[in-house]
Structure formats: C-alpha cells, structure tokens
Amino acid sequence: MNLHYQVEGDGKTIILIHGLFGSAANLGLLARSLKNKYKVISVDLRNHGLSPHSDHFTYQEMAQDVLDVINHLDIDQFSVIGHSMGGKVAMALAAIAPNRMEHLVVLDMAPVSYQAHRHQNVFNGLQEVNKHIISIRSEAEHYLAQYVEDAGVRLFLLKSLAKQDDAYQWRFNVDGIIANYSTIMSWQPAAEPFMGKTLFIKGQESDYIVPEYRDEIMRQFPQAKAHMVANTGHWLHAEKPEAVTRIITNFLEK
User: How far is CA 97 from the centre of its chain?
Assistant: First the structure.
C-alpha cells in the first residue's frame, strides 16, 4: 500500500491525516500555515484521494500505511495531526510508534466506538451518483441533493469527484467504505496508554467529543490536554483556521 503524499516546508516533521471521504487537500489551510516552520507531510489514506483502494480498512492497517511513508522518507521523530477518522488513525499510529511521536493532535474525535450511523444519507447519495454516467459535475450534485440536504456537505464530497476518461467518478472507494463502515466507527484501545504529549481540540457545536468520553480519553492518553473552539462544528479547522492553527502552534512549541 503505497500512499500518495506531498511534502512541503522544512524543519521538524508534522504528519497531517484527513478524515472520512476526504483527502490531503482537506487540511490544506493548516498545511500552508505550518509549512513556514515545519516539514509538513500530507497523506491520502487508503481508499481516499490518489492512494490505492483496498478491501482491508482497519485503523491498524491505516496507521501502518502512514508509518511506511514516514519510514520511506527516513524520518525518525515526528508529530501527527489528524481530523475525525484521521484522528483515530493518528491515535493508532501513536500505539505502534509511541517513542517516535513527539506530539499527537486530534481534531474533534474521541478514542471510542460510535454507535450511531451518521452517514446513511451520504452513502445513499454516493450510490445514486454511481448509478449514472456523469459527464458534468452539476449532474452529480443533482443526484447527491436527493439525499444530502446540506450544500456544504455536497461541496465537500464533490471535491473528490474527478474525471476519468469520459466520465466523472469518485476518488474514494465507495463500496469499500460502506463495507467497512462498522470498523470505521469502532475503536480498539491500545494495550498500553500513550504517554506522550497529546491535545484534543473540540468544536463547541460538535457531538463527537462529549463529557462522558473524558475518562476514556484520559485512560488511553494520560497526558492529554483539551481545547474547545467556540462556535464551530466538526469542521473546526475549516470554519476557524486561524484559531485552530494558533492553538496547534502553541502546543507544538511548548
């Protein structure tokens, strides 16, 4: 599994890991700010972006994919920032390379199994698009809109619609994601807690991190600090990029 990635800047290494249905470009605003001081490596996870597709889609496998990139680039010490599903990949990476990770930053995700099905409307929309030959992007949005009411979500999804030959297709692996959705929503804690520097950043209006998860967060990440970004949801780094960048930069420089 040779992940697609891009490297920007110079200095200590920071790995950026996107969330479900995304790609390296989703954390582009953060990358542009950090590359002035750091070497920033943005990856496309398996089944996303320009990376290969696979039927296997566990957090342990995704974390190893990222570690393979790091090893290929001959990097010893690194910090990791992951959003949503990418936050879980980052936490899984901390489990397999704890002595090499200097900082762990998790954006709006908790180390727990989520029980609610949050994406059925998205799956329905993606599958509807796949039923048709899409020659112009507006056709895909039309089919998506039958199931996905939020225009912002549609715009986000359409960023991963690319023209191949004479038709547009999803870059992410729709069937693979649907087949592995229960695994994506689940979580298997590491055998040992991660004792390194850890920061969880929550969007105030998001329900991905709630007070009931605090004990489990501290059990798995005893050094964890928390920061809430006011008036933001799950996409806090896109809604308030300057605030999130400032919080992360302050944490990395401590």
Answer: 18
How far is the C-alpha of 174 from the C-alpha of 21, rounded, in Å? 9
- pLDDT (tens place) for every residue of the chain, 254 residues total: 899 999 999 999 999 999 999 999 999 999 999 999 999 999 999 999 999 999 999 999 999 999 999 999 999 999 999 999 999 999 999 999 999 999 999 999 999 999 988 899 999 999 999 999 999 999 999 999 999 999 989 999 999 999 988 899 999 999 999 999 999 999 999 999 999 999 999 999 999 999 999 999 999 999 999 999 999 999 999 999 999 999 999 999 98
Taking the whole predicted model, whether its pTM rises above 0.90 is answered as yes
- State the amino acid at position 90 in one-letter form: A
| Cβ atoms of 90 and 104 closer than 8 Å | yes
Residue 139 phi, psi (nearest 5): -65, -40
Domain ranges of the chain: 5-114+186-252, 120-179
DSSP lists the bridge partners of residue 186 as: none
* Helices within the chain (DSSP H only): 28-34, 59-72, 85-96, 120-130, 137-145, 151-158, 174-179, 181-185, 214-220, 236-239, 241-252
CATH number of 5-114+186-252: 3.40.50.1820
Taking the C-alpha atoms of residue 2 and residue 46, their distance in angstroms, rounded to an integer, is 9
Question: How far apart (Å, rounded) are the C-alpha atoms in residues 82 and 90?
Answer: 6
The catalytic residues are 84, 234
Q: Which of 161, 145, 2 is nearest to 68 (CA)?
A: 2
Contact 143, 129 (CB under 8 A): yes
